[in-house]
Amino acid sequence: MKGFPGVKKYQDYCRKAVIRDGYILMNPVTGHRCHIIDWDNKWIHVRNKMNTDGFWQYYRELKYEDPYCEEIQEIREYFKLKSDLEKDSINYRIQNRGAMCTKVAGILLFKWIVRNNYQNKIKMCIQAHDEWNIEAPENMAEEVAIILQKCMEKGAEPFCTRLPLSTDISRLPNGELPTFWVH
């Protein structure tokens, strides 16, 4: 991460924010959140308990006397949850923005299909992660591929404001469009 200080700063922010807020703000543009189950009822209480004077001395003694007691297991569970949340706080944001870019691109492509009265000619078959599988007549395939590429780039604009997202068209080694899904 030494070569990418901005990435480290962003990841550190994500890790702190989820523990501070009790949810992952997956997308600031849409406001989508992933709330942590029992954050207010259980996990804040556990975190606060660990911050009281003398807790860690008490914990070490209890861990020595009864390592499988409920309180020790609760602390272990908290740190496991915290570790998972910190990782998820980074991954969820990236995955959500990618999904939103793809969804907006699908809407733009669908509008283009309707506007050009291609409903019975072009089929939007599969949307997986950050890809679309489109079926089109061979004589229209290149145009549809280029339009989809533009829709994907346009769909990313609200979510990738600092660095434009570039896309590519899946092609066979000879440069032709495939007649099957290249994943």
Description of the molecule:
The protein is mainly alpha-helical and 183 residues long. It has a domain at 5-97. It is built from five helices and four strands; from the N terminus they run αββαααββα. A two-stranded antiparallel ribbon has the order 1-2. A two-stranded antiparallel sheet has the order 3-4. Strand 1 and strand 2 form a beta hairpin. It is elongated and about 75 Å long. The model has no long low-confidence stretch (mean pLDDT 92).
Succession of helices and strands = HEEHHHEEH
Q: Which percent range describes the beta-strand content?
A: 5-15%
Mean pLDDT level: 92
Largest sheet: 2 strands, antiparallel
Proportion of residues in helical segments: 55-70%
Which structural traits does this protein have?
5 helices, two-stranded antiparallel sheet, mainly alpha, 183 residues
What's a quick, concise take on this entry?
With 183 residues, the protein is mostly helical. It is built from five helices and four strands; from the N terminus they run αββαααββα.
Topology:
Blueprint: H1 5-21, E1 23-27, E2 32-35, H2 39-50, H3 55-65, H4 70-115, E3 123-128, E4 131-135, H5 141-156
Helix pairs in contact: 1-4, 4-5
